Amino acid sequence: MQSTEFTTSPLRKYKLVFLGEQSVGKTSLITRFMYDTFDNTYQATIGIDFLSKTMYLEDKTVRLQLWDTAGQERFRSLIPSYIRDSSVAVIVYDISNRQSFINTSKWIDDVRAERGEEVIIVLVGNKSDLSDKREVTVEEGEKRAKELHVMFIETSAKAGHNVKTLFKKIAQSLPGIDGNTIQSDTKDTSNYAPLIHEAFTYFFLVQKINLNNSESTASSCAC
Which of the four CATH numbers 3.30.420.40, 3.40.50.2000, 3.40.50.620, 3.40.50.300 does domain 12-188 have? Predict the structure, then answer.
């Protein structure tokens, strides 16, 4: 009796790093894409979070490795190392917060400083459901994206608007998909995720202990 052997091509893996100011909705976009849910309670990302999901594109399958970075200033020094081997940088701003839009230029500069032109950059105007609080027009977003030669889309993680479209556009633009030629040196870092989380947990616990000790010393000082 002959056995039938099935051969499958290796699963392509791509690293997507999410960047932007605090509370623009980076985590919410990822959560909506991963689980199709939205959490109304805000909790700031501490350090870096990692998730991955497989996407099916007609006859191709890709695994997206999603790296969610903290927007707070105290974590900025950690971010360049995560940009360095990324295939895609998703720069998110809040359409109801003009300063977060202004700061996207700096984030894009940081990405290009680390990756040059060998990276796909997507400018995302999130929270499009807040139309009555809008401080950045669609036209302004489109203009900036055109000036900086990046992709652009507006989304609402809360309403689920354009989130699937965002990730589909990214997946279709990835190197190696339908003849796209940008080369990627992305490594499969999924096996390192537990170690990364453990290291961050230890680091921030130590930082918190040191901070608490400093506050105790300051409160007992008689000067």
Answer: 3.40.50.300
